[in-house]
Design brief:
This protein folds into three domains: 87 residues, Fumarase/aspartase (N-terminal domain) (Fumarase C, Chain B, domain 1), CATH 1.10.275.10; 265 residues, Fumarase/aspartase (Central domain) (Fumarase C, Chain A, domain 2); 61 residues. It is built from 19 helices and six strands. A two-stranded antiparallel ribbon has the order 1-2. Strands 3-4 form a two-stranded parallel ribbon. Helix 7 packs parallel to helix 12. The mean pLDDT is 96.
Length: 444
């Protein structure tokens, strides 16, 4: 009976759920067993006929999930149950199933196969998000809005610039995933404590052949398990990734507040309900879901880091935790990427409101622009800063436009003409390289 929201279908994409469903997991384990038999045949440990028989039966078409579970109920060991279920289907060739291997030769190598598929999906979603952000950056490269620091009006930027900042962050996550592949996507055939004693003189060759067959790298060295710093790195990378999505979603939520009203996630006006009691509500619920589930993924880093610790060459503390850890981290990360792709692609932008908000401080947000204009005319930068600081306070207290206060000040009026003051107060004239940076990302 489904209990958790991933199981009920509330969270997760069909593609990623397929990677971690039980039948897929068992098939990956069988794929490793088949590759091991093939490698033994290649080095002459068993006949090619026996290897071919094992490979032909190493399929969930023959090794049923139900049968594996029935054996496990009896012997209380999941991998040994799979080995017995496969051997049953192989006749006399079953004697060579799992030859020289320990359970986690099979489990950790199957983990790598699943993580390889999962990483490919996540990278595709990230690339999609980058493309969506590139389109938005290009479209809004000149859309002026207020830049904010500490939640307060700072200087004007463009919406395209904001999207470019997000997009470059996405690029770095793509780089991290790609760079971690050689450390994370590794398998092993090294026996009970890593010495490969059970595999004989051809042990290194057997491991090499298995990994070549499965298109994986072999761990440089391992004990009974692949060391868990690898998985910890992967989960921490995913936690950083979803934290970026959390950041983007939080920004959209903030800008959607009625007091700001600049940018909103899409809302299906015909049918979508925002509140069970308040008909007017249009909540940023998808962004909020991103923020909430990002917390779950971040929490998994604690488990991943704890799993680095093991007694001697191996204990069982990692096993139970990883049954949650790896599927949840991948499924939720992929799901959040899917949501964010949809959110960003369908954003509603109120450009007029953005311009209105730039004017909320009556021009005071352009004080740096005026200061720099005065400095270029020879006024000491520090003196100009102190003067303008005082003038912004006068403007705010007297609720007068900053332009009016500037024109009334002798030093400002002596240094800058009316035209120069107006130019300095024009948000579009003080965007620096924002437009060019947005363009550069849009064309990257």
């Amino acid at each position: 009976m489904p209990i958790l929201p991933i199981d009920t279908g509330r969270y997760g994409t069909p593609e990623m759920l397929g990677v971690f469903q039980e039948q897929t997991r068992i098939q990956k384990l069988l794929d490793v067993e088949a590759a091991l038999a093939w490698a033994h045949a290649e080095v002459g440990d068993i006949s090619k006929k026996d290897a071919e028989k094992i490979a032909s039966m190493a399929s969930t078409q023959y090794v049923k999930v139900e049968r594996v579970k029935a054996i496990e109920k009896e012997i209380k060991h999941d991998l040994a149950s799979l080995v017995r279920a496969l051997a049953e289907q192989c006749g006399s060739s079953g004697a060579y199933v799992h030859l020289g291997a320990t359970s986690y030769d099979i489990v950790d190598t199957a983990n790598a196969l699943q993580l390889k598929d999962a990483t490919a999906i996540i990278e595709r979603r990230l690339s999609c998000l980058k493309a969506v952000l590139q389109k938005q950056a290009g479209q809004h490269k000149e859309t002026v809005m207020m830049g904010r620091t500490h939640g307060q009006h700072a200087l004007p930027i463009t919406l395209g610039f904001k999207f470019a900042v997000w997009g470059r962050e996405v690029e770095r996550h793509l780089q991290r995933l790609n760079q971690s592949r050689e450390r994370v996507l590794v398998g092993k055939i090294s026996g009970a404590v890593g010495t490969q004693a059970s595999l004989g003189e051809q042990a290194p060759r057997i491991q090499e052949l298995v990994m070549k067959r499965l298109d994986l790298r072999a761990a440089e060295i391992s004990t009974q398990i692949v060391q868990r710093d690898r998985y910890a790195e992967f989960v921490c990378d995913l936690a950083m990734l979803v934290s970026s999505l959390d950041n983007f979603a939080t920004e959209i939520r903030e800008l959607a507040r009625p007091e700001i009203g600049e940018m909103f996630e899409s809302f299906e006006a015909e049918k979508q309900v925002g509140s069970s009691t308040m008909p007017h509500k249009r909540n940023p619920e998808t962004c909020e879901r991103v923020c909430g589930l990002a917390r779950v993924v971040r929490s998994l880093t604690v488990v991943a880091l704890e799993n680095i610790v093991t007694w001697h060459e191996r204990d069982l503390t990692q096993s139970s935790a990883e049954r949650f850890l790896l599927p949840e981290a991948c499924i939720l990360t992929d799901y959040l990427l899917s949501l964010m792709n949809r959110i960003v692609a369908n954003l509603r932008v109120d450009e007029q409101r953005m311009l209105q908000n730039v004017s909320l401080t009556q021009g005071r947000c352009m004080s740096e622009s005026v200061m720099m204009a005065m400095a270029r005319k020879g006024v000491n930068r520090q003196d100009a800063h102190e003067l303008l600081r005082k003038l912004t306070i006068v403007s705010e207290v007297e609720k007068k436009p900053f332009r009016e206060i500037l024109l009334a000040d002798p030093l400002v009026h002596k240094t800058l003409s009316c035209e120069e003051i107006d130019a300095a107060l024009n948000p579009k004239s003080y965007l620096g390289t924002a437009v060019k940076q947005a363009e550069a990302f849009a064309k990257a």
